[in-house]
Amino acid sequence: MAIDAAPQMNLSAAMNNMIAEGVAFMGYPRLAEMAQRVEYRHIATVLAEEATREWIGFRSGGDGDKKDRIAALEKEFTRLNVRDKFQRLSELDSYFGLGQLFIDTGIPSLDADLATPLLLTPETLQVGGLKDLVVIEPVWVSPNEYNSTKPLQADFYKPSRWWVMGSEVHSTRLLRFVSREPGQMLLPSYNFGGLPLIQLAKPYVDNWVRTRQSVSDLINGCSIVNLKTDMAATFSNSGITGLIGRIQSFIRFRDNRGVFLTDKETEELQILSANLAGLDKLQNQALEQICVVAQMPLVKFSGISPSGLNASSEGEIRVWYDRVTAYQEAFFRPNLTPVMHACMLNLWGEIDHDIEFFFVPLWQMDAAAKAAVAKTNADTRAVYVEIGAADQDEVRKALANDEDSPFSGVDMSGPGYPPLEEEEGGGGSVTGGVQTLGDPAAHLDDEEA
After folding, report:
1. Confidence at residue 435, expressed as pLDDT on a 0 to 100 scale
2. Closest CA to 120 of 332, 339, 356, 432
3. Cα(83)–Cα(303) distance, rounded to whole angstroms?
4. What H or E segment, with its residue span, contains residue 355?
5. pLDDT tens, 404-440?
6. How far is 276 from 4, CA to CA, in rounded Å?
7. CA–CA separation, 194 vs 354, rounded Å?
8. Cβ–Cβ contacts within 10 Å for residue 159, how many?
9. Helical pair 279-294 and 202-220, crossing angle rounded to 10 deg
10. N or C: which end of the chain has fewer CB within 10 A?
11. pLDDT at 373
12. In terms of C-beta density within 10 A (0-12 exposed, 13-18 middle, 19 or more buried), how is residue 400 classed?
């Protein structure tokens, strides 16, 4: 009745198999220990660093000059160290499946107001009210209230309040960062967090560690020396001591510069070597399997460049950057938006909806590629003017509005420069689009010159 006999052994074996396959929550202490291995750490840090490397920029979608406000908002993000904290939250999501960001408005830790919602309005968050943003590891947090009976409601299995070491905090003050949601029936098992990436990678890392050690052991014992001797005669003449002495004498002189004598009639020396061909490929394949879980190129994970004729990882890097961009939109944007609004209320007492943020693309063109694109655009615009599809004023406006143009932001409301024409006399000439000046003293007399 207590099920404390044979079924318990089966249950234990099943749990061990689930943990080995990475489909059972291993607990925060075990995950913290695993995060100390370089393989697991690279999975988390590479993704977090790439997602925050170029970071974000701000732009205004409305009318009017917003440069001062954008500069103040950038300074506020620097004061709060938003970039580094979002990088740390990405690492926590990979290590533990959950990371949380506390919006500190100056309320004491045991104050009952922490359990009330934080509304992003001028009445609840006044100018100067945003003190700090604090990253909270999930080991210190547990859910307090959540709807577990009404699946038709939007808050089903979503905690509205959390316990943080004895402090009850409303979910609007403790932003939740999860990128891999488990099924709802498993949410309580994961502390209402997500699936840790390093837990999913555990079977592949275990295979890599076993393969790496097996290759090392095989290389260490790849060569075996076989000494064929008359063991019966040696044993009968001097016993086991003589046989061991013979072996020890061989070991003593076993190196490239040693000399070992064998009896030509009763002894023979033979070298047995294992075939080491293909071990490097087997080991690399075990390492590449880890990259499959992390969805990142091998060169990003390990720094190993592809080998072979015309080998290149440019295509894999482009795919990886697309994957990071999708990760930024899904993981950062939902919580980065309220953080930006809180910063606006802290600065100006209002939310400026004309200002928005964007993620700076990770793929950047070099100087030569940018120059080639600029030359192509210039030739295209010149053709439009030549055929009459656009005039010079329209081209000048397009140059001012083009962020990649050297004339970006320049005031071009005035009239454009007329085309250079050939002048008569000493006034100069136009050759190949370059104006050359004539003699500046041609119209002066000797004294004036």
Report:
1. 46
2. 339
3. 25
4. strand 355-359
5. 777 776 766 666 666 555 455 444 444 444 444 445 5
6. 50
7. 34
8. 21
9. 160
10. N
11. 80
12. middle
CA atoms within 13 A on the CB side of 273: 4
Distance CA(37)–CA(196), nearest Å, equals 15
Give mean pLDDT, residues 376-397. 82
pLDDT in tens, 286-325: 888 888 888 888 888 888 776 544 445 677 888 899 999 9
Residue 100, burial from CB neighbour count under 10 angstroms (0-12, 13-18, 19+): buried
For the segment 355-362, the average pLDDT, to the nearest whole number, is 94
- Which ranges in 167-277 belong to alpha helices (H)? 197-200, 202-220, 231-252
Average pLDDT along the chain: 82
Whole-model pTM? 0.75
Q: What are phi and psi of 334, to 5 degrees?
A: -60, -30
3-state DSSP assignment of residue 68: helix
Per-residue pLDDT, 1:
52
Per-residue pLDDT, 415: 63
- Residue 447 pLDDT grade (very low, low, confident, very high; cuts 50, 70, 90): low
Q: Across the chain, how many H-helices and E-strands are there?
A: 14, 12
Answer whether residue 4 shows pLDDT above 70. Answer: no
Type of residue numbered 20: A
Predicted pLDDT of residue 121: 93
Q: Is the pLDDT of residue 395 over 90?
A: no
Q: Using CB atoms within 10 A of its CB, is residue 55 exposed (0-12), middle (13-18) or buried (19+)? A: middle
Q: Count the residues in the chain.
A: 449
Strand 161-164, strand 141-145: pairing: antiparallel
Mean pLDDT of 36-47: 93
In the chain, what are the helix, strand and coil shares in percent, each to the nearest 5?
Answer: 45, 15, 40
Q: What angle do CA 160, 51, 81 make, to 5 degrees?
A: 65
CA distance 322 to 315: 11
Residue 34: count of CB within 10 angstroms of its CB: 19
- 413 CB neighbour count, 10 Å cutoff: 9
Provide the pairing of β-strand 355-359 with 56-60: antiparallel
Q: Are 151 and 374 in contact (CB under 8 A)?
A: no
CA–CA gap between residue 125 and residue 128 (Å, rounded): 8
Closest CA to 139 of 74, 190, 64, 88: 190
- In whole angstroms, give the CA distance from residue 369 to residue 251: 64
- Of 257 and 78, more confident: 78
